[in-house]
Structure formats: structure tokens, C-alpha cells
Structures
1.
Amino acid sequence: MKKLSTLKDEVESWQGVRQRLADALELAQLEDEELRPELEGETAALEREVDQREFNIMLSGPHDRGNALLAVHAGAGGTDSQDWAEMLERMYLRWCETRGYQTEILDLTEGEEAGIKSITIAVNGPYAFGYLRPEKGVHRLVRLSPFDAAHRRHTSFALVEVLPQVEDDSEIEINPNDLQIDVYRSSGAGGQNVQKNATAVRITHLPSGLVVTCQNERSQTQNRENAMRVLRARLLEIRQQEQDEQLAELRGEYTKAEWGSQIRSYVLHPYQMVKDHRTNYENGNTQAVLNGALDDFIEAYLRFKMGEAAG
């Protein structure tokens, strides 16, 4: 029923565009100068609508239309990398805000001195996974370190994971006997924020060895539900990776993806530049990018992949 409702909405929206186009053509045939401003405005709006729909065609993966789980993990580099992970968290939250997506922090581990060690965010909205999918990979920051007394230049790394939220439980079946569930007290900033009760949840999926933790909610039940959401998403990704690897091996093109190679560099010193190494797309306005202006990078990557597929 949910799929039927989605398809019905899409058909109705296309019919609406067709009707608007027919109305605009009718206005144009009247050749009335007083109607010109209205006609020009509607023409520009229709062009933007068609461009957006053309862009959405690139989001045709099985989970592209759905919600996403976004995780950021600080890499090697201590406090600098943990600060960089927090900068990425802020960047993605700003981007979600501009798109009108709802966000929910499922799990957060803060750094000892500054920043965060890791964070998992549920992103809910149409095409959330499709848009965020190009962000998956290692992000590299080059800057003068605010945590170095000598103010030397440091390079920091953070890993961004993007997973589809599993909407249908039947898509990934989990045997309860395969789970080891532990509860413990949430770690916090101290004082009144420290949990007196064991509400944080750690779930270990024994067959795969996957470990998922959730501690952001005050309810153990809610943390358990959120942990299961993340576990299902990670198991789905593993299954998808195995299928992709098998297909790539059949084609003779399989190479193992390693953690180390960054997809994008954010250089704040000695010059200002954000560059995506897959598409070579660059933007010199680093502050705008770090404030969530990611659409151009996302579109460049999707068009690049579309060109690869066509080639």
C-alpha cells in the first residue's frame, strides 16, 4: 500500500506538470503583453521543475527514494580528527535543514577534549538516501590546528557512512537467537546529565560480529529500537556489498575498497578549496560548503556516475 501510494503521488505530480504546461501554452497563444510577466514566471518555474525531475532520474537505486542513516567517525589524528568529525556533523545537519529533512541523533560519542568520536543520525525525507549516497567515504581536512600550541598545519581524516533505512522488516530477517544484547549506563557530560539507570544498549550480531550501540534516548526501549534500525541497515549494506562484489568478479573488475583513500579534501590552509577527487569538482568557498552547500558536489557525482554507466 505504501509503494502504491508513492507511485500514485508521482503520477499525479507528473499530471500536474503536464496541466501547467498546457495552461502556459494556452496563455502564450493569446499573445497578450499584459500576461507576459506571469507567463515568464511560470516558464522559469516549469524549467526548474523539469530540471529537478531530470536530476531525480539519477536517483533510481532500490533505496534512493527512502530515508537514510548517516554516520561520521573520527579517524586517526586525536583531537583534530574528532573536531573535524564534529564539523562534518554540523555540515550535514545544515544541509538537511536546507532540504527540509528531519534528523534524529541515534547515537553520539563525544571526544575527550573536543569534538566527537562518532555520531549516527537518522535522516528522514524523500530521496534522503539517494542524495546522501555520494557522501560515503573518507573526508580529509587540511588546516592550521587550533589544538597545536605551535599552530602548525595538520591533516585530519573522518569516515562518513551512509546506509539506507530498512522500511520493511521482511527485507532483512534477524534471528533473535543471533543477538547478544547488553545494557549499560549512558556516558554523558557529567553532573545532572549522567544516567543513573542502565538505558544505553549494545547489540552484537553474533554471525557477522557487528556491534551496534545506541545511548541517546533516556528510554532503554527506544535505544533498543534505534539500535535494531542501525543493525538492519548495516546487514543490508553487507548483503548489497557481497552482491556487488560477486557481480564485479564476474565482470573481471573487482578491486577491494580500502578505508584510506579520501573522496574529498577540504583545504583551509595555505589556500581555500574543497575538491572532490572522484569528479574533480572544486569550490573555493569553503565556508559555504562547511555550512551545508553540498548540492553541487552531490549533483556532480551523480552525473559522473550516470556518465560512467552510459559509457
2.
Amino acid sequence: MRAFLSLTVILYALLLSGCGYNTLQATDEQIKASWAEVLNQYKRRADLVPNLVNTVKGFAAQEKDVLLGVTTARSRVGGIQASPELLNNPEAFAKFQNAQGELSSALSRLLVVTENYPELKSDANFRDLQAQLEGTENRITVARNRYIKAVQEYNIVVRSFPSNLTAMMFGFQTKPSFTVENEQEISAAPQVDFAAPVPAAK
């Protein structure tokens, strides 16, 4: 009886290893690790926003609409619970992505406004914050690309035969990934030239 049980366990293990179960587990774990890094970099960016807004406000308090836009976008980002379940919910994932996109747009508008304030551009604190923001945007791009690749590998396993049968048996489903209208925009870090002269008013 023991020999029969041992043989059954061995055969079951061989079947699982040959049907993609281990690959599904490995690729799923890679997605979780990549997602954690995406969230880490987005949090890093969100943490920079209050100091950046306060610094700009000190030199350009009249830009209320732009400053409010940034703080509102940051609040929307903070209001979304980025739980692991979000990765299995395309609608929730899209909502998260849209909120992050709104913050990116708001920050871009803020940076355009700062071009009109030479004193702000020469402020050491602002320049330091801007350098940190640019570095964080680079890290976000790298983290997103890793996540996209991890999801692609996982989804291929979920959809391919015979691992798709294992996926159905154990409840593995395809996961949503980041989508962008312009892939080149998301792959390029924002360029901000603080040394450029401000055009003279006509």
C-alpha cells in the first residue's frame, strides 16, 4: 500500500511539472515581485508631490489651478487600494492606471508653468526635487516594462496548451497589463532643461 501511495505521489508530481503548474507558479510570483516594484516607484513619486507643490507655491502662488490639479490627482492616486486582487480585475487595474496617468499629466503641466519663474528654477530645493522626480520617472518606466514582460510571459503560459488546462483546473486567469496610446511617450523619461533661458515678454 505504501509503495502504491509513493508511486501515486511521484506520478502526480511528474504530471504537475509537465503540465505547466510550476511555470504558472513561477511566472505568477514574478508578476507579484514586478508589481511591488511598480507600486514602490509610484509611491516614491507621490511622496515627492507635497514638497514640490509647496516649493512651487512659494514662488508661484498665483498658479492655483495647476497646484490644485496636482494635489487633486495625488489624492485620487492615494484613494485607490492597490491590493494584489487589483491584478486580477481589469476594471480596477484600468482605474489605477488612469489615476496614475492623471498625476503624470498634472505634474507635466506644473513643470511647464515653472518655466515662467526664473527664481523658482534657480532655487536649489526645487532643482533637487526636480532631479528626484525625473529619476523616479525613469524608475517607473523600468518597473512598468518589467511588469509588462512578466505579465506577457505568464499570460502565454495561461493560454498555451497543455498548461492552459492546468490553469483552468487551478483557477489561473490572464492578468491585465499597462496600455498606452503612445508607447514612445511612456518609454521616454521627461526632459526638463532648467538652464534654458526664459523667453522675453513681448
3.
Amino acid sequence: MRRISEAREQVDAWRQIETRVHDLAQLQEMALAEDDAAVAGDVASETAALADQLEDMELSLALSGEYDRRNAILAIHAGAGGTDSQDWAQMLLRMYLRWCDKRGFKAGVIDLMPGEEAGIKSATVEVEGPNAFGYLRAERGVHRLVRISPFDAAHARHTSFALVEVMPEVESEAEVSLNPDDLRIDVFRASGHGGQNVQKNATAVRITHLPTGIVVSCQNERSQGRNKELALRVLEARLLEQELERIAEEQARLKGEHISAGWGNQIRSYVLHPYKMVKDHRTGFETSDAESVLDGELDPIIRAYQKATIGD
């Protein structure tokens, strides 16, 4: 039923575009016949907006991967660099939350570990929306920031790193099998924000998957049961991602290729000093409007990545 609903939404969207194209063609004919500059300007503006929408929809059709249409679990981890990297991780969290808001996606921070002085050490976000994983998988990898450090009294230039992970949400129990005997579940008091109930009672949940050593936690909900439910969802996503990575590595080995996913392989650089630029190293996409990117304007970067990887 969910797939039928998604297909119906796609068909309806294409039919709406067909209607808009027909209406614009009629307006264009009227503007030419009456030599009406105002109407012609409206037609040009509407045509440009329609072209952007068409590009979005065409790229959404290219999201044909097995998991592309699913919700996503996004995790951000500060790298080496102390307070600067933790502040950078928080900037990335804000960027992705802004992007979700612009797209109309529902985003909820389900776990957050604040830094000692500023920023965050890590954060986990659940993103719900059409093709959420398909879009956000463009963000997986190491993100590098170059700027004048606001935490350095000498105002020196610092380079900070943060790792972004993106995992598809598991939709059925058949995809990931969890044996209760393989889980160690600990409860503890939440730290940081969350309200009096969250901080005074042992509502936070940490789950350790003993066979793999994967540890996930959730502390942002007021209910211990809800935190456990969300933590299990993140654990399932991590186990699914681990299996996908294993399959990809095996395929690469059979092809005779191997690409390390280490910290040295940053996918994107954000430079705020001595000039302003955001460059995606995989596609060559560049923009000097770094502020807009950090304010959630990620669609042009994601589009460039999608175009570069169509058919992969």
C-alpha cells in the first residue's frame, strides 16, 4: 500500500506539471498575440521555476537504488581538533536540519552528545521524507572546514574535520535479525538538554550489540520505552549498513579495486578564510556562497552528485 501511495503521488505530480506546461503555452501565445510584456515576464518566471521542478523530479527518478526511497538515519561525529571540530559538527547539524526544513522533511535529533566547551561530539538524526536516504547518501564522508578559529586567542587559521554517516532505515524484520541474547541494554540519566524529567530519571538507553561491538544510544525522549525503540531503530540501520558495506567490499575485491573510507578522503571542503568557497571533491562542484550552503542550501551540491553517479 505504501508503494502504491508513492506511485500515485509521482503520477499526480507529473500530471500537474503537464497541466502547468499547457497553461504556460497558452499564456505565451496570448502574450505574443497581444504584445504584453508583463504577461511575457510572468511566463518567463514560471518557466524557470518549472524547469527547476522538472530537474528535481527527473533526478528523483534516477534514485533507483534499493533503499533510495527510504527514510534515513544521519549521524555526525566531530573529528580531531578539539573544540573547533566539535563546533564544526554542530554547524553541520544545523545545516542538515535547515535543509530538511526547506525540503519539508521531518527531522528529529534522537541522540546528542555535547562538547565540553562548545559544539557537539556527536549527533544522530532521524530524517523522514520521500527519497530521504537517496538524497542524503550524497553527504556520506568526511567534511573539512577551514576558518579563523573563534576559540583561538591568536586568531589563527584552523582546519577541522567531521564525519557524516547516512544509513537507510530498516523497514522489515526480515532485513535485519536481532537476537535479544546479543543485546546488552543499559539505562542512565540523560545529559544536556531535555527537560527536568529527562535529566532526573534514568530515561536514556544505551544498547550494545555484542557480536559486532556496535553501540547506540538515545536520550532525547522523555520515555525510556521510546528511547529504547529509537535506539533499536538506529542499531538496525547500522547493522544493515554494515552488511551493505560488506557486500560492496566483496564486489570491489572481485573487481580488483579497493577504495579506503578513511578520514583522509574528505568529500567536501568548506573554506571561510582567506576566501569563501565550498568545493565537492567528488564532482568538482564549487560555489563561493558558503553562507547559503551552511544555511541548508544543499540541493545544487546533491544534484551534482546525483548526476555524476547516475548508473552507479
4.
Amino acid sequence: MDTIAQKTPATLPWNAWSTLAPAVAAREVQTRVAALAPALRSAALAWLRPEHELALDLAAKSARDPLHGIPYFLKDLFDLGGSPTRAGSTFLNEVRGTPTTDSTIVRRLRALGASCAGKTQLVEFASGLTGENPHFGDCPHPQFPDRLTGGSSSGSAAFVAAGVIPLAIGTDTGGSIRVPAAWCGLYGFRLTPTQDLIADAIPLAPTMDTAGWFTGTNEGMLATWQALVGPASPSANLRGCYLPLSALLPTADAVTDQACTAAAKKICPAADAATQAELLAAWRDAVDAYLTIGMSEAYLVHRDWLAPYREHYDPVIWQRFSAAAHYSAEQIKAAHATLAGVRHAFEKYFSVYDFLILPAVPCAAPSKADCTPELRRTILTLTAPASLGGLPVLSLPVSLPSGLTAGLQVILPRATSSVVPWLLQPE
């Protein structure tokens, strides 16, 4: 099978990166980026750090640092001093100027020993779930070029899935870690809103924006989680349950439903009828509430740019943000009431259980033709509850018979949950 990343060297194990000499590791990153097909490179790469600069940065780190020797790519919503932050747009740097300082997450990763190798493209202003961008190209799946990676953290997921890099930083408002992780067969972690690692990123909807990251292995996910989040809060006799895809989407893809159910069954039992009914009732209006809150907040971020830069926006994104100007106070109030109800339901659930498993996507990675408004809404049916809940989520890959992938979202009451190392420890 021809693949869009077929000339890329074999993926290096997580620990192998830390054993490479700095100059060798920097050359390895350059070689792997250069080996990508032009369409993938254009759609995924926003900026590549010069090889000698990356080598010097890697050499400056201590072997005692927990992420020593790990190069990573950064979603272009975060600032890297001296490099433009464009957020998938063509005009943001014009109105904002090139940043002179690094975002908090960059400084944190530097202190942990990781080195930023470059920045990745995304859906414009992070408002999308399928990896489409008319300015730089829709981001193709590294192994299935007729399909897309998912978004909005499309470039970050693509680089990890293509074996270019062991770690990439993304964000998740409505599923932008969870969806591309599932479609690209990756591990992902979504943090929580308003914390310091997301506070200085270009916002989409601050009530629900979160930072996160992708790795290709459970080993890499556990190492990054331990460095950025751990240690785990103490817990014993961990309890959880899962809701099948068919419970949330009665017309869901049967193959995806079966694969996700089989994977979830290995971790925990299905939710009992009462628990399932209570959660589904609380989530009944979750998609509409997510869209109302999310787009009304996005409008406030963009309102001074929408008129003067209309021709520079992706028309779909411009319409999405502009339409939110017409939401009534009553609509926004009702959406926040739904958010409060979702959070109350989660609080009740987590008074009994330690985690909840849902499917992350309704189907395998889509083609461009499949990327419809209906697909967006279907995805949000699965992802909006945790987004409204403001909860951290561990994403686990699920293999499909076709060779494509789906994923599970393990919703947690706190980022330090001991469920994370329990699920990620090698068997």
C-alpha cells in the first residue's frame, strides 16, 4: 500500500531518543520531516527549528531531567519567542506581532528537559474537528492519505503518527486531542480549562479550552504525564464503567461500536441501566450548549477582526464566529444551565466511580467528502460532555479490522488520577 509517509524512517522507540547524541537527534528530526510527502508537510508544519539550534538546545539539557533528549512539536496556538504564532490563519501575526517570549508550556517542558523542534499547523483558530485548513491544506492521515487526521490539533497528531517525533503538544476544546488521537492511533491526554498551561495560548473558548499532548506509545504517554502532571493521587480498587457507542448514537457505525466495546470490556464493565440513563439525560442538550458557549466566547475573541479581516478567514470559520453574535442572552443562559447540570451529573458519578469510558469517535478517519456538519455534530455528541464538564481525559487507541483506528476517552475526575498509571503501565 502506498502511504503518504512511506519514505519516513522507522519510528524510534521513546527511550531511543534520549540515547541519541544531540547532533544526531537534531539531524533525525530534519530527516524525518524532509521524508514526508509535500502535501502532509505543508498541512502539518508551521515552522521548523534550524538543525544547529535544536542540537544546541538538546545538548544544554541535563540527563537527570525526566524528558531529557525528547524533541517535541508545538501546536501553533502557543507562543515561541521569535517565531510567529498564526493559529492556522494568514493574518494573526499581522494584528498581534511576533511574540518575544515563550508560553508557559514551552518553559515547563524546557525545565523538564524536552526541546521544541518546531510548530505545527491546525484548523484555523482551533475551530474544527476534522483537520481541514484552506490556507495550508487539509491534513492527510500519514498512513491513509485519502483520509484526514482529525483536528484541530491536526499537525501535531500527524507528526507523531508519521514517526517524525515522539511527542507533540496540542489543545482540546471540543475534542481536538481526543479525535485526532483516535483517528491516528495515538495516545492523548487532555488537561483541564483555565490552568496555567493553557492560559497564555490563543483562545477559542476559554471556558473549555485545555492543553494536551500526543504520544505514539503508552510508555511515552506515561513518562510525559508523570513529568507534567504526576504524581498520582492515591487510590485503591479503581472502579469505572463504559457506555457503548450505540447508547450515545443509535445509528453508529457497527464496526467502530464493536471494536470500542471490546476494548472497553477489557478495562471495566458496562454501565448499569440507571447510571446510563442518568448520564444520557444530563447530556441531552450538551452539543447545543457546547456550541452556544464555545462560539459565543469565540465571537468575543474575534469580534474586532471579523469585519476588517473577513476575506482572510476560512469562510466556514468566519460564518461560525459571526453567527454567534446573534445568540440571545437567554440562549447563553440556558447553555450555562446545561453546563451546570452536566457538571453536577459528573460530580455525582465520580462520588461512586473513578473513571468513565466513552468512545472518542463515531467512525474511522473520514475522507474530505465525509467532513460534513452532521459529522461534526455526531463527534460532539461523544466529546461535548467531558468538554462541558471541564474534565481531564486520557485517550487510548483502538484498532479496527481495516487497519484504521478509533479510540476510547477515559474521563477522569482529576488529572492526577491513579487511573492513568494503572492503564498505561506495560503489561
